[in-house]
Amino acid sequence: MSGKVFLIGAGPGDPELMTLRAMRMLQEADVVVYDRLVSADILEMHTPGARLIPVGKAPKCHSVPQDRINEILVKEARAGHCVARLKGGDPMIFGRGSEEAAYLMAHGIAIEYAPGITAAQGASSATGVPLTHRGLATSVQYVTGHRQADKVLDLDWKRLADPDSTLVIYMGVANIGQIAMGLMTENLPGSTPVLAVGNATTTEERRLISRLDQLAADVRDANLQAPTLFIIGQVVSLYAKQPVADLQEQAHG
Fold first, then answer.
1. Same structural domain for residues 96 and 216?
2. How many structural domains compose the chain?
3. Are residues 94 and 130 in the same domain?
4. pLDDT, tens digit, 9 for 90 and up, residues 153-190
5. Is 171 known to be catalytic?
6. Which of 14, 35, 90, 218 is flagged as catalytic?
7. Residues 248 and 195 sit within 8 Å (Cβ to Cβ)
8. Mean pLDDT calculated for residue range 213-221
């Protein structure tokens, strides 16, 4: 008899930011298939005896290809297991959750969803920088800063270079110089403030305050690595006043 798959958003890293639904699903699972960005603190909340299957990916290093992950989920569910597919952030925002769901549905596997707090929301709550603010930003845009198989980053720079909107860049460390140049080419001022947050909401959180025309150099000098999120726009001016490129290491709690 077939089991089912829980498609779970684990949030940005802090266990307290998981939803009650996500926690319940994780603790009901016989098998936990988890990504690299799921924190150890969250992973430890699984039911004793549950089998853990790591399928994490790193930049330029996909240890388990997506096709294989899909096959693992189907195989475990068909064996009658309750499978927790545990993803960082929200599985439906740059998490390939919809791709996995489509594959599971095509193979007759039942799915239940638990949304997660995405990295942008986690970074916003951790730093106090809002994603929208009256008089500064009337909308927010989420965009991924890389393309599959390192394809050309063909973003709609004109649409993204909106001074009245907050732009959030996921997975953009490697291409941040190109991103900044593309925005400035479409007349987003080089003085636009930027907040970079690495490992948001975790004990390894790091913050970098910069501006668009200095961002690439500041990120390089600070040696920021993935996962780092970039918040670009006037809302960053609301962050506690720091010198440009002041890098902070903040212990959680």
1. no
2. 2
3. no
4. 889 999 999 999 999 999 999 999 999 999 999 999 99
5. yes
6. 35
7. no
8. 97
The pLDDT, as a whole number, for residue 1 is 64
Answer yes or no: 57 catalytic.
Answer: yes
Mark whether 129 and 244 lie in a shared domain. yes
Q: Are residues 101 and 132 in the same domain?
A: no
Q: Per the residue annotation, which of 57, 92, 162, 213 is the catalytic one?
A: 57
Q: Which residues share a beta bridge with 32?
A: 52, 84
Q: Are 35 and 88 in contact (CB under 8 A)?
A: yes
Task: Show the domain range for 95.
Answer: 4-114
Q: What is the CATH number of the domain that holds 33?
A: 3.40.1010.10
The one catalytic residue among 18, 25, 87, 171: 171
Residue 253 CB neighbour total at 10 angstroms: 6
Is the sign of the CA dihedral 237, 238, 240, 241 positive or negative? Answer: positive
- Residue 59: its pLDDT value, please? 58
4: annotated active-site residue: no
pLDDT surpassing 90 at residue 114 = yes
Using the predicted structure, report yes or no on whether residue 58 has a pLDDT greater than 70. no
